């Protein structure tokens, strides 16, 4: 976890801290890829990679309300999840899809999305599977797809037009 006061006051502060953490980690990548130093972090095709493996990355923090999929459940700390993408294949997860069978969930992906929604923590599902993964690492407070926290960039980290430019 990130220590108290460790970048969880707002998604933008969280993003700044996560950029530092992920960059420091990628700078130590034994494979030498240094994923966070790529010039295309915010574009399709980029993935966080370490030691030759792709990772699903998500952040959770006190700044997110109980209605958010990134809610920290009162921990008072921010934390970063690094899940090897290969683990999805090991558990026979179906390929990513923008479609969800909300009324009669058929796949584990459907059931997960429905469970989050039913718990009051629904989240934006991109209209295509060809989206920039970095846009989903640090979520905005209102995760409706209308804005993106550009945590990988300096300057204004929130861009309402970015969600539709990909």
Précis, in short:
The protein starts with 10 loop residues before the first helix and ends with a helix. By secondary structure, the protein is of the alpha+beta class. The chain has helices spanning 11-27, 86-90, 108-118, 162-165, and strands at residues 48-50, 53-60, 79-84, 148-149, 158-159.
Question: Mind sketching the topology for me?
Answer:
Elements: H1 11-27, E1 48-50, E2 53-60, E3 79-84, H2 86-90, H3 108-118, E4 148-149, E5 158-159, H4 162-165
Antiparallel strand pairs: 1-2, 2-3, 4-5
Describe this structure in words.
- The model is unreliable at 159-166 (pLDDT under 50).
- A hairpin with a 2-residue loop joins strand 1 and strand 2.
- Strands 1-2-3 form a three-stranded antiparallel sheet.
- It has helices at 11-27, 86-90, 108-118, 162-165, and strands at 48-50, 53-60, 79-84, 148-149, 158-159.
- It is globular and about 45 Å long.
- The longest helix has 17 residues, at 11-27.
- The protein has one domain (11-96, 131-165).
- It is an alpha+beta fold.
